[in-house]
């Protein structure tokens, strides 16, 4: 007879499982439409659920720690072993007269345990332990409430001098922390508290530039004595807000950051300052470390970006490279808005320009003028966002619009929208198949399987045709705005290649981007479980969105006015809100 | 880098503070791009094991994205919870370390799983040790010789001989010697509070202990923005096991003696039936609600109802997550001046402390709050502006730096 069957019979016979009570008390079981006793036997008892009003699992486990550590279903334990001992079963019976302690201690289990203790440590140990146990029971029963706690010590603890309270050095300099804000949310106070308590400077000033907050942001800033610069929402640009903040700041050094960052410790600003002084660089930035709730996509793009910058394994001093092109400038002129430490006098000469990638622009201008910058991977600021696919579709678009606009050597692929949208249509169908195929990952849960699933699908490409109707994604990991946008594009311009063999390129760009996911998975995980699989699927959809957005930017750059799609309207939609 | 996290018990079977700390730190380390695995002890009788070697059963599973290896000795010794017998499970431990080949081990608790560290010592695998309680110094774990006394450490075994005479001196000496070896060979020893660091540094001269407070999951908490007038009703809250050493009886008695019409006490948690019965007897006609246990994810809702959090523990709390979660939610705290739990409480500024076990002093503090609730406004402001409670990210960041320092 199986264990479950035996337990089921025992419990049924005991009359201590009350189906009606169980279903009424636990509506999730009621809604799940499962056998309540089966639920209790397999899951319920482990979750501390009570089988009836007569038996409280939590109380029984607290009373009988041996049962808790044995991992046996407490009701089964009670029925099988101890009912005759009179162990209390219910919170309701807790108010009744208590059973005599000695009776409850005289069990077969305790007898065997006692024998083993005597064998290992001797009779004296056993006797004193038993006496203490009885005394503890007596104390519990009498509850000597106002009895002070006696602390026994040979040497008083207070005579010990703790080593960790040495004073931190203070430099005679001040720092202004500049934060553009708008509705900064509940955690803004935590951010300000962590900045005003930074160690190592004679003064830390907070300057916020608010562009129309309607929540408690301004009040919180006032509470912390911040200097407040207010601008209208319409006048906000990333550069304008930061420049105003920098001008209002009175510190010797400026630290630019964002409203949802968090310093990792109280010496964070001092670490950046020390780097600046000791390495004689003009400005210092650092990498970000994601928040605990960051999704896989954000983690992988951080990891990939810092691999690109070469700071995942250490810190870098950057200067103008010998070979100047858009890649080398981005690798060597990087400053980051999330953490940018710069002397006030340097800022006043350069300031920020542009409304996008103003941090990279500042870094490149500095290195072109012969300055050195530091980018730290060993010191990081806490920061991340969990944003929907739609944000990343736009982000991919804006990034490439910027790159093509700012770097003259950036080669724009010859993509036209009439060819590209059918390609999106094909890839959209591919995405649906890929998401479904990924369900097989958990049966052989090693990260290499991700590559195998992708390869299997990629191998079918030579025989694949463009779809004749808007593909159905099947699994909803792409947010609705992205789905609506992509499906709208496909309906308008994406079905005219229906039935022709696939000859596009987007699928290769997409699978190339998925290499980041593959590498990150192999670097970080040994197994893939259900939780990770969900994260992977979301991550793939965001990857798809960013690749589509990036290529739409090339389509816009290559427009000739003859497109059936309204390219200016498309541009406006995708440029908004990033 | 591959890091093994070693802990005496883990989710989903157990969900106390140490398990929470290991889960948070391992998850954050994993997301920083490292391979991690939790190695723990399985306390279930029908553990559904898949392997059985060298007298040890084991299985692997995943908990919220974290891989876990759980093992269990086939013949559990009677002193499983405090033994540090060198022979127990050592072959299995070596096998695991050979197979997993970690670059580093982070120890969260050594009870039951210490053979892994003994094997690491032999195999030259570095480890970092976080002192989550006093298990390494005290077989009784809590530094409580009896249920109503505390001590300040073994004093090389002298205090044990004096206060815990049931423990044979040969056993204490052997155990302390092994603990000292484990502590001295750790690449870094970390404590969640100054108090814990002090106890260990005092006992084992020469070891350096870094203090890294446990972090709270800030994203799970919401600030309590209530503003109080002097006629407002005040809800006090207690969250914890209903056991003598957590002191709920002290609070219930103080509250029932106060018996103020504008006050309420919420008690969360469960306990031994005898003890719970006694607590109920103390209630009288006071406004006290016993709310039982709650699911971890509902903590913000539980805290939202509480105006002042009370922790009357009679034992050394090495940190007390819930005190710090309350402070992070801008809730003033009244707690015993004992162990590591009051280090963030500034007297009269963000809460009050009272001598452990002094019910009269606790009653006066409760009375002071209900007579003048508006003082809580200043306290909440002080918490908002000046009380720094680290987040899990900040705690993990410090550990990341510690790990890197091992290989520098």
Summarize this structure as a short list of keywords or feature phrases.
heterodimer; A: 578 residues; alpha/beta; Spore Coat Polysaccharide Biosynthesis Protein SpsA, Chain A; 4 domains; 8-stranded mixed beta sheet; 25 helices; 9 strands; globular; B: 408 residues; Rossmann fold; 2 domains; 9-stranded mixed beta sheet; 6-stranded parallel beta sheet; 13 helices; 16 strands; 19% strand
Report on this model:
The complex is a heterodimer of chains A (578) and B (408). Chain A has an 8-stranded mixed sheet with strand order 4-3-2-5-8-6-9-7, sandwiched between helices. Mean pLDDT of chain A is 85; it is low at 84-103 and 155-165. Chain A has helices spanning 3-14, 19-25, 27-32, 36-42, 57-63, 65-70, 74-82, 101-105, 108-121, 123-142, 188-196, 217-223, 238-248, 268-278, 296-309, 326-332, 344-350, 358-368, 389-406, 417-437, 448-458, 480-493, 506-524, 530-557, 567-575; strands at 150-152, 171-181, 201-210, 227-230, 253-256, 283-289, 316-318, 340-343, 373-382. In chain A, helix 12 (217-223) links the parallel strand 3 (201-210) and strand 4. Chain A folds into 4 domains: 3-99, no CATH class; 111-142; 170-386, Alpha-Beta Complex (Spore Coat Polysaccharide Biosynthesis Protein SpsA, Chain A), CATH 3.90.550.10; 391-575, no CATH class. In chain A, helix 21 packs antiparallel against helix 23. With 578 residues, chain A is α/β, with parallel strands linked by helices. In chain A, 50% of the residues lie in helices and 10% in strands. Chain A is globular. The longest helix of chain A is centred in the last third of the chain and has 28 residues, at 530-557. Chain B is α/β, with parallel strands linked by helices and 408 residues long. Chain B folds into 2 domains: 2-215 and 391-406, Glycogen Phosphorylase B (Rossmann fold); 218-386, Rossmann fold. Helices cover 35% and strands 19% of the residues of chain B. Chain B has 13 helices and 16 strands. Chain B has helices spanning 17-31, 90-100, 115-123, 158-163, 169-185, 194-203, 248-258, 273-283, 299-304, 321-328, 359-371, 375-386, 392-406; strands at residues 2-7, 35-41, 51-53, 56-63, 66-73, 104-107, 127-130, 149-151, 188-191, 209-211, 234-239, 263-268, 288-292, 308-311, 333-336, 351-354. Chain B has a 9-stranded mixed sheet with strand order 3-4-5-2-1-6-7-9-10, sandwiched between helices. In chain B, helix 3 (115-123) links the parallel strand 6 (104-107) and strand 7 (127-130). Chain B is globular and about 65 Å long. Chain B starts with a strand and ends with a helix. The relative contact order of chain B is 0.11. The mean pLDDT of chain B is 93. At the A-B interface, helix 5, helix 6, helix 9, helix 10 and strand 1 of A face helix 1, strand 8, helix 4, helix 6 and strand 10 of B.
